[in-house]
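User: Please fill in residues for this 204-position structure.
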């Protein structure tokens, strides 16, 4: 059994006419994004959402959802990873009451560091059964390995008490390229000439 988007579409179809929804936040746009919208984090988080995972888990005895356990687990694993790598303040986990939103610490039994290590193994298992493309696996694996190596270096060599992985990301760079695309007429693929021209206008 593997995770399937069909379970999410069935959940959305079942709940769309209802006023109260257990799969809170799941929308048709998130389930059927365009190639450009697939990079929209807000839409991604509508799919990888704890409410959605719990809604699927609550329906595991139903005929249409009897094999949805793998989908539920897949969502939860990605959510844990997302929580760990997006911690930007030391107290986030305390305020949200979520151990996966705590900074990765210098403790030998830190659960978040252990999860990142297990996450790499999990990616390889899923790749072996043909779930991930080579490109997706390489990107996720490199990210997880790099973050884990950074944590180990900061803890062992720099003697940090904890590491905020949410500070190690490419948001500023992505924001800049977003400006380039908008100033080039909303084009997704821009050439070097357009990049240089828009950078010149930004700096004026």
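Assistant: Residues filled in for all 204 positions:
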């Amino acid at each position: 059994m593997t995770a399937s988007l069909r379970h999410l579409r069935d959940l959305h179809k079942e709940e769309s006419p209802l006023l109260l929804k257990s799969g809170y936040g799941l929308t048709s746009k998130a389930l059927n994004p365009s190639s450009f919208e697939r990079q929209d984090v807000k839409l991604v988080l509508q799919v990888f959402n704890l409410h959605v995972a719990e809604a699927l888990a609550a329906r595991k005895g139903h005929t249409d959802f009897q094999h949805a356990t793998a989908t539920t687990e897949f969502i939860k694993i990605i959510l844990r990873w997302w929580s760990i790598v997006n911690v930007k303040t030391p107290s986030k986990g305390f305020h949200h009451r979520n151990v996966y939103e705590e900074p990765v610490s210098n403790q030998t039994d830190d659960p978040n560091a252990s999860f990142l290590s297990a996450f790499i193994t999990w990616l390889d298992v899923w790749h072996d059964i043909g779930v991930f493309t080579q490109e997706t696996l390489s990107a996720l694996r490199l990210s997880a390995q790099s973050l884990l190596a950074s944590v180990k270096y900061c803890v062992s060599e720099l003697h940090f008490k904890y590491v905020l992985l949410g500070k190690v990301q490419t948001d500023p760079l992505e924001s800049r390229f977003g400006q380039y695309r908008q100033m080039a007429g909303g084009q997704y693929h821009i050439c070097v000439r357009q990049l240089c021209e828009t950078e010149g206008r930004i700096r004026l």
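For context: Strands lie at 104-105, 162-163.
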